[in-house]
Amino acid sequence: MKLSILDQSPIASNQTAKDALDESLKLAQFGEALGYTRYWIAEHHDLPGLACSAPEVMIPYIGAHTKKIRIGAGAVLLPHYKPYKVAEVYNMMATLFPGRIDLGIGRSPGGSAEATNALSDNFLQQVFKMPQLVEELLHFLDDDYPTTHEFSKITASPMPKVKPMPWILGTSSKSAQLAAQNGLPYAFGLFMSEEDSVAMINQYLDAFLPKKHGQVPEVLLTVPVICAQTTEKAEEVALSSLIWSLQKEKGLGQTVPSIEEAKEYELNEKEHEKLTVMKQRLIKGNPQEVRESLEQLQKKYKADEIMILTITHSPEDRITSYKLIAEEMLSSN
């Protein structure tokens, strides 16, 4: 099984944003050494506790300090941007880091309504135009993709020898359909979805339409995971991210709380119920338990690859989690 890393660059309560971004680089470097296939960093805008608003800045920084791991955005929130500029940026990266650049394409705002309005005009109208935006972007990345748009004769220079690999990211039938119709690999955010995820992935597989020779459907599943030496330790480490999620719903939680701070947080009755549900959605445990859970998910969702999102207060706990999983699942590959 191929395993990869999704990083939201979380800021812990004892960190600055610079600290969090430094830890993102370290995570990518460790991931490369451990045998993970790719490292993607997410795009968020004005969301407390998340440090990366510009993956197009972090990706080349990480690329310059790693050698072979694939790197990319999870995702570029395309309705905010002109496809031509996105293609220029990622073609530039692919020129600098040949054979390593992924371009995840998403449609969410990535922040509050106010941040969305500050970042772009007519966001909702652009969301409705998503199929057209994707068509334009794919043509700018690869002249072989058919297009009817008005900019078909211009080039998003520089054109790299090895093109960026586009992916559609999402959690809905619309994203599954968009990926299938364009013959693209599909990254499904299981950690964000409350829909019938199996049905959506099956929809993608059934509707997949190759646009070029040799294209086959490819499913990447993104899941939240906390792994530790023991089940008890994993439960303890996981409490930070779980309580942080509850705090953010109340407009609190500017940063990821420590384990001690999470234990001191007083839950009301409704939060107790939410916490129980959240614990069920989070994969956590010792290496053997995590492996069993991931293998079950791979089989259930027909996934070619699993991308792991791990949020902890301590950077050491996060690295340990990825290390234990790699030793359990990648050491024999």
Automatic annotation (TrEMBL):
The segment(s) forming the Luciferase-like domain are: 1-299
UniProt xrefs under Pfam families: Bac_luciferase
Q: Cross-referenced InterPro entries, in alphabetical order? A: Bact_Lucif_Oxidored, CmoO-like, Luciferase-like_dom, Luciferase-like_sf
Q: Which GO terms describe its cellular component?
A: cytosol
Origin organism is: Lysinibacillus composti
Q: Which SUPFAM superfamilies match?
A: Bacterial luciferase-like
- Family annotation (NCBIfam families): oxido_grp_1 (TIGR03558)
Its lineage opens with: Bacteria, Bacillati, Bacillota, Bacilli, Bacillales
Q: Which domain of life is it from?
A: Bacteria
Family affiliation: To bacterial alkanal monooxygenase alpha and beta chains.
Q: Membrane-spanning regions, if any?
A: none
UniProt name for this protein? LLM class flavin-dependent oxidoreductase
GO terms of molecular function: oxidoreductase activity, acting on paired donors, with incorporation or reduction of molecular oxygen
